[in-house]
């Protein structure tokens, strides 16, 4: 029997690689001679860096950057084993979880740290950057990132504007002549799973701004500022970023990356391409996937759904596992899943559930494969 293990991370409990290890131990305890392929996965959000580095035996580097409030922190990026591709999660330097709730303020938060990580990655003579843009604390349209990369965002007096979405109201022109020249030959793939435009009622500000600390009054100002910003980008760079699906991702960082020539693509598609997922699993007898929580939203581009869709192409059965099976998870049975299990052995505190994730996965898999062994013996 050949089994492919292709989970996402279980947030705050296990990396995708650790989940793979627990699943493998559970399988081998029942079928010790089973052939196993482990493919740590991600969908472009949290865990993408670890998954791609683990899947390709790459390396993770730590660097000093600025957090969304301009304070110095240590952030991470990865270089894949072929040495030509960098992986960056914007949340590592510009993420919402880096700021306490009481300090969240989209008027002043910046993506400057994300730009700093890109600069550090360029020092490795790479040819491609994969940038995951989920979980941002910002609403600056990627202007901070552009400033870090050398672009000049100037006011009417020819002075550099400050950080944050509020400062965009002062923007008079954008000068890319000082942009880091190495970017000219870099392919930028943006892992983006939302289709929101930059501005308007479905744009970056009104949809995502409230969770970043934006009040009703602030949202109106910030949306107007992003609209102004997009007009300057169109005029000075001849690039449309306003009404492009995904431009509103990460507080408009999607739009800023479009200005750099970036290509927006579903995160799971990028990860599958990098890991050669389809080629690795096509001859498997069974696939096991999962993540921390599975529910009706899993079909909206999440890792388990992406795995199941490829499995359907080759008529491979799929088993899903999760810490929590939420509302509407049953729809997954209509979308490529043959069986779905919670790894929880009973009622637990969240703290205990997170700590015991590895053993719970292993025990769940052992139970599943014990049943499969019974069936095999009957046959």
What would you say this structure looks like, in words?
- There is one protein chain.
- Helix content is 35%, strand content 18%.
- It has 379 residues and is an alpha/beta fold.
- The mean pLDDT is 94.
- Strand 1 (2-5), helix 1 (16-28) and strand 2 (35-38) form a beta-alpha-beta unit.
- It folds into 2 domains: 2-41 and 276-378, 3-Layer(aba) Sandwich (Rossmann fold), CATH 3.40.50; 48-265, Glycerate kinase, domain 2.
- It contains 13 helices and 13 strands.
- The protein has helices spanning 16-28, 48-56, 91-94, 112-122, 143-148, 204-208, 216-237, 249-259, 267-275, 277-281, 303-313, 350-355, 357-378, and strands at 2-5, 35-38, 59-66, 72-79, 85-89, 128-132, 152-154, 173-175, 187-191, 263-265, 286-294, 318-325, 339-342.
- Helix 1 packs parallel to helix 13 (357-378).
- It starts with a strand and ends with a helix.
- The strands form 3 sheets. Strands 3-4-5-6-9-10 form a 6-stranded mixed β-sheet, with helices on both faces.
Enumerate the strands of the largest sheet in spatial order, edge to edge or round the barrel: 3-4-5-6-9-10
CATH superfamily of the largest domain: Glycerate kinase, domain 2
CATH class of the largest domain: Alpha Beta
Overall structural domain count: 2
Mean pLDDT: 94
CATH architecture of the largest domain: Alpha-Beta Complex
Shape: elongated
Radius of gyration: 22 Å
> How far is the N terminus from the C terminus?
15 Å
Number of strands: 13
Order of helices and strands: EHEHEEEHHEHEEEHHHEHHEHEEHH
Structural class: alpha/beta
CATH fold node name of the largest domain? Glycerate kinase, domain 2
* Contiguous runs where pLDDT drops below 50 for at least 5 residues: none
Portion of residues in beta strands equals 15-25%
Largest sheet: 6 strands, mixed
């Amino acid at each position: 029997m050949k089994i492919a293990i292709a989970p996402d991370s279980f947030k705050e409990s296990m990396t995708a690689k650790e989940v793979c290890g627990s699943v493998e131990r559970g399988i081998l305890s029942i079928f010790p001679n089973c052939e196993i392929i482990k493919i740590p996965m991600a969908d472009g959000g949290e865990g993408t860096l670890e998954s791609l580095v683990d899947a390709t035996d790459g390396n993770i580097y730590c660097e000093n950057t600025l957090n969304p409030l301009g304070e110095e922190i240590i952030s991470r990026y990865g270089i894949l084993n072929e040495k030509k591709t960098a992986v960056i999660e914007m949340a590592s330097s510009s993420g919402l979880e880096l700021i306490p709730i009481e300090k969240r303020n989209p008027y002043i938060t910046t993506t400057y740290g994300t730009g700093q990580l890109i600069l550090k990655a360029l020092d490795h003579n790479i040819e491609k950057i994969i940038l995951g843009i989920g979980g941002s604390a910002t609403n600056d349209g990627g202007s901070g990132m552009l400033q870090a990369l050398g672009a000049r965002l100037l006011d009417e007096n020819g002075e550099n504007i400050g950080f944050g979405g509020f400062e965009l109201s002062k923007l008079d022109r954008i000068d890319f002549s000082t942009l880091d020249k190495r970017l000219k030959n870099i392919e930028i793939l943006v892992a983006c799973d939302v289709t929101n435009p930059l501005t308007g009622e479905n744009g970056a500000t009104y949809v995502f701004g409230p969770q970043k600390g934006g009040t009703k009054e602030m949202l109106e100002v910030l949306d107007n500022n992003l609209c102004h910003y997009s007009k300057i980008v169109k005029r000075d760079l001849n690039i449309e970023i306003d009404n492009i699906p995904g431009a509103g991702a990460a507080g408009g960082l999607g739009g800023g990356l479009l200005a750099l020539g970036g290509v927006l693509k579903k995160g799971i598609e990028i990860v599958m391409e990098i890991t050669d997922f389809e080629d690795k699993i096509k001859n498997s007898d069974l696939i096991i996937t999962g993540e921390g929580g599975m529910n009706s939203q899993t079909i909206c581009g999440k890792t388990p759904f992406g795995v199941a869709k490829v499995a359907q192409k080759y008529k491979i059965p799929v088993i899903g596992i999760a810490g929590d099976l939420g509302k509407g998870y049953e729809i997954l049975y209509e979308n490529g899943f043959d069986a779905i299990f919670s790894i929880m052995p009973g009622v637990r505190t969240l703290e205990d559930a997170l700590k015991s994730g590895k053993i719970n996965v292993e025990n769940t898999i052992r139970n599943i494969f014990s049943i499969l062994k019974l069936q095999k013996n009957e046959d």
